[in-house]
Amino acid sequence: MSGSYCNTDCYDSMQEEIKSRLKSGNACYLSVQNLLYSSLLSKNLKIKIHRTIILAVVLYGCETWSLTLREERRLRVLENRVLRRIFGPRRDEVTGEWRKLHNEERNDLYCSPNIVRVMKSRIMRWSGHVARMGERRDIYRVLVGKPEGKNHLGDPGVDGRIILRWILRKQDVGGMD
């Protein structure tokens, strides 16, 4: 199943799409794994490979996803695996032994938003585009809950700020209140 779509009746299809994206991202990771192991490439170049190849494949079409906490965790696990490969192990200052980086240490080194935050940012950007489309567009009517396009209560329309507040609450992002 490739591509992505917005369909409220097909939650299972959305889960299958996310699984497919994760599987494709894992395949990309395995295909560039030797580059990420290489000591000839800088960490900055490895991060660019991660962003432009792996993240691009995994997040394709994410603007229409509605993630559960389990799916968010699966996305973070994939990203953590890639970043662990990029940053490698560290020598412990006290014992002198090599160890894996802790997640907090790795996040400090990465200095970029995690995959879930990137995805939520893309959802917000897409939702803003939809909010500006107007009632004649089908996707707008689906977003505001009027798929038939009828205005039952005689209201003049839904203000874009109301839509964005609803999306912010749904995506658990602060702002606009």
Description:
This protein is an all-alpha fold. It folds into 2 domains: 11-113, no CATH class; 124-170, no CATH class. It has 7 helices and 2 strands. It has a two-stranded antiparallel sheet. A hairpin with a 6-residue loop joins strand 1 and strand 2 (98-99). Mean pLDDT is 79; it is low at 1-7 and 149-156.
Topology summary:
Layout: H1 11-37, H2 43-58, H3 69-87, E1 90-91, E2 98-99, H4 103-110, H5 115-131, H6 138-143, H7 160-170
Antiparallel strand pairs: 1-2
Please describe the structure with a list of short key phrases separated by commas or semicolons.
177 residues; mainly alpha; 2 domains; two-stranded antiparallel ribbon; 7 helices
Number of domains: 2
Mean pLDDT rating: 79
Distance linking N and C termini: 39 Å
Major sheet attributes: 2 strands, antiparallel
What string, H for helix and E for strand, traces the elements in order?
A: HHHEEHHHH
Low-confidence stretches: 1-7, 149-156
Number of strands: 2
Trace the largest sheet across and list its strands.
Answer: 1-2
Cα radius of gyration in angstroms: 20 Å
User: From the helix content, strand content and strand pairing, which structural class follows?
Assistant: mainly alpha
Fraction of residues in H or I helices: 55-70%
Gross morphology = elongated
Number of helices: 7
* Oligomeric state: single chain
Share of residues in strands: under 5%
